[in-house]
Design brief:
This protein has 103 residues and is an alpha+beta fold. It has a single domain, classed as 2-Layer Sandwich (Alpha-Beta Plaits), CATH 3.30.70. Helix content is 26%, strand content 37%. The chain has a two-stranded antiparallel ribbon with strand order 1-4. Strands 2-3 form a two-stranded antiparallel sheet. A hairpin with a 5-residue loop joins strand 2 and strand 3. The longest helix has 17 residues. It is elongated, with a radius of gyration of 24 Å. It binds iron/sulfur cluster (2 copies). One iron/sulfur cluster binds next to strand 1 and helix 3.
Length: 103
């Protein structure tokens, strides 16, 4: 193979690699818990599909073991916790992260 053909072959390979890259978009969530309003009922803990919530060993000013997040990176922003909370203690924010992977 001469030099020109080698260059063409390399360019073709690079082009193929780019075409074989895939993008994954995942949704990640961030929540904010009003711990002073929380009455420690545990409904949000039970409903979280990512199991990122638990009741704290500490108590708030009203003496309740409040909800706290233990694995923030696993939150998918589904908002189940906010919807089920009877006292509207939880706000949910969503963000989309895009990862590029070569296959
Ligand atoms: S938004 Fe969904 S995944 Fe995140 S803490 Fe609430 S219930 Fe769990
Ligand atoms: S559902 Fe609301 S009140 Fe109950 S533990 Fe969770 S944040 Fe607290």
């Amino acid at each position: 193979m001469n030099t020109a053909n080698q260059k063409n072959g390399l360019a073709h390979q690079c082009h193929s690699l780019v075409l074989r890259a895939v993008h994954h978009t995942i949704q990640q969530g961030v929540i904010d818990i009003n711990t002073e309003r929380c009455k420690g009922c545990g409904l949000c803990v039970a409903t979280c599909p990512a199991q990122t919530l638990q009741l704290s060993a500490l108590v708030n000013k009203r003496g309740y073991h409040y909800s706290t997040q233990i694995a923030e990176a696993h939150c998918i922003g589904c908002a189940s916790c906010a919807l089920i909370c009877p006292d509207a203690c939880i706000s949910v924010y969503r963000t989309s992260l895009t990862h590029r992977t070569s296959i």
